[in-house]
Design a protein that fits this description.
Helix content is 73%, strand content 0%. By secondary structure, it is mainly α. One of its GO terms (cellular component) is nucleus.
């Protein structure tokens, strides 16, 4: 995994070059006029950066750190920037991918990873519940997070039923 993450980080150099070129193609004060042209690409890039950081540290990457990885600004006032909604959409895509990773981890015999993913996703869900999301695409994506939480809970439950989480937690209920 560390080698794959390093390889992915190398590709972000190309992304930075391309985004740097994009910044010069339109007036700086008209970011939102053209935002739809790169919105989904930025959301996907946020997901990729968040996934790499998660695989390296098992933490959530900040918006500022993603902006730095992509070579763009975090603050709107500074020009071409990472919009907060694009960041949040990318993070929600990360949640969906982590739900898949939880299932695949069990298949590969890694029984502790789904437990760690479950903790991470539950904290992420708690954070999103604090937001007052409008009835837009971000709200719909957030609604999908509920299914990801449920999917991961089912994986953790199955591990518990089969007694496989003992290896991950050191015993029943974390006892040794």
């Amino acid at each position: 995994v560390p080698k794959k993450c390093q390889k992915a980080r190398e590709h972000f150099g190309t992304v930075r070059t391309q985004l740097s070129s994009l910044k010069t193609k339109f007036p700086a004060d008209q970011y939102y006029r053209f935002h739809e042209h790169w919105r989904f690409v930025l959301q996907r890039l946020v997901f990729l950066a968040a996934f790499v950081v998660y695989l390296e540290t098992e933490t959530l990457v900040t918006r500022e750190a993603v902006a730095e990885i992509l070579g763009i600004e975090a603050d709107r006032e500074r020009g071409f920037h990472l919009d907060i909604e694009d960041y949040l959409s990318g993070v929600l895509t990360l949640a969906s991918e982590l739900a898949r990773l939880a299932v695949n981890s069990v298949t590969a015999g890694d029984y502790s990873r789904p437990l760690r993913i479950s903790t991470f996703i539950n904290e992420l869900d708690s954070g999103f519940r604090l937001l007052n999301l409008k009835n837009d695409s971000l709200r719909k994506r957030y609604d999908g997070l509920k299914y990801d939480v449920k999917k991961i809970e089912e994986v953790v439950y199955d591990l518990s039923i089969r007694g496989l989480n003992k290896e991950a937690t050191g015993g029943v209920g974390g006892e040794k």
